[in-house]
Specification:
heterodimer; A: alpha/beta; Rossmann fold; six-stranded mixed beta sheet; four-stranded antiparallel beta sheet; 36% helix; globular; B: 263 residues; mainly alpha; 10 helices; 88% helix
Chain lengths: 266, 263
Amino acid sequence: MSDNLIEIRDLSFAYGKRLVLKDIELSARRGQVVAIMGISGGGKTTLLRLIGGALRPTSGVLKVDGVDMGSLDRESLYQLRRRMGMLFQFGALFTDLSVFDNVAFPLREHTDLPEEMIRDLVLMKLNAVGLRGGADLMPSELSGGMARRVALARAIALEPSLILYDEPFAGLDPISLGVTGNLIRRLTDTLGVTSIVVTHDIQESLRMVDYVYFVSDGVIAAQGTPEQLKASDEPFVHQFVHGEEDGPVPFHYPAPSYAEELELAA
Amino acid sequence: MNSLLDSLRGIGARVIDGIWRMGVATRFFLMILLQSGQSFRRFHLIIREIYSAGVLSLIIILVSGLFVGMVLGLQGYETLQTYGSEEALGVLVSLSLVRELGPVVAALLFASRAGSAITAEIGLMKATEQLAAMEMMAVDPVARVVAPRFWGAVISMPLLAAMFSAMGILGGYLVGVVLIGVDEGAFWSQMQAAVDFREDILNGVLKSVVFGVAVTAIALFEGYDAPPTAEGVSRATTRTVVTSSLAILGLDFILTAFMFRGV
């Protein structure tokens, strides 16, 4: 068994003729939290969707747990997905089901466990995210942070070996943000899973991840451990880590000269 | 010359787009049928949809049926008494309802009440990534979400149309017999003698099944195909009501031409 749960070699992906990702090399070791960071529209979410099998690579190799995602038929993809969990940006809870039924959903769909055992498992998962007391609530009664925690409980219901997180910190207050970050770290360590976190929350990520890949304009612009990145003087990383307004990622959308546009030219 | 070419190109693009969409819709419909086995094995999912599409539409169907029947009673009596044949009121009310108004008006009401709800629900499930989440959990959304809604609505439609017609006949009776005073025995006996089970009632039921399939397939496709934005879902909901209403009326003409020609 390879040390790496995810292996991406020389991967490119295009929507029609528009190349979104090119020459991506990325790997994630078992038991690690790996962050994919970068500015919005840079191709992070596309990369996550490729790992989840929602998109197929245009060229290159993408292996999850030794399985080549490019050549999977639907049945094999569904088999593989039973070993994956995914946390969507706003939780994507089923709004017509209670918190309990949301977490029970994958168990009921994929196992023949008796209802009492499902009840115990669901309560254990909810306890792990601190929401055992909210089992009877409906998704509309939850705050954004709580909804994401329920979705996390649902994502770990089948004890996956890989969890994908799409912007897990977006729109959270500082307390919920810290709670979610700690949960991702704790669940990764206690369940021995591999976590891939797509985010642009730099401070929270550098606090809890093992390795970071920066994606910009469809390529891996930089990579390293949080310590390496904090110490980096590479302009793009420096701008991103310190949240600087201008730099390799410009503040201004491309435009003709300001003076020319205002007809101030001498 | 250029503008002529541009407009021709525009028309061509729209035609190709339309055909493409028809193809996608047909494939979607076939996928629903292919995935239906699982829904029938888990019949409680269909029961839930019968409740939301059928039971929750009951009020509007029953009240509308009653009023349509009452209006038929009034208008029918006005016309029939000119020829001294007001006893035939029962025949007029019942045949109008079971052959035409029951299936057609019930289907139109069903399209605006349940069809729009189905489109909005599926569209919002897509916009909030619930369908994508299901896919990621290795659960096929067509089998789990779409097919049960299809069968729930298709089963509900003929039952609702039958209830619409029954309420309509009751409305006609209330106005014709109770209010105006048409002979009660003549009202019911002429109705019994004139309405044929196979020709009239079964054909009416068949119509409502066809309308149910059309309305539900349109509603589900529009929801599933809706752009995942507020505007996309609202447009899809409007399109469901407009397209299914036109489909109901068009199909009604075709079915009537086949069923009642020369009868």
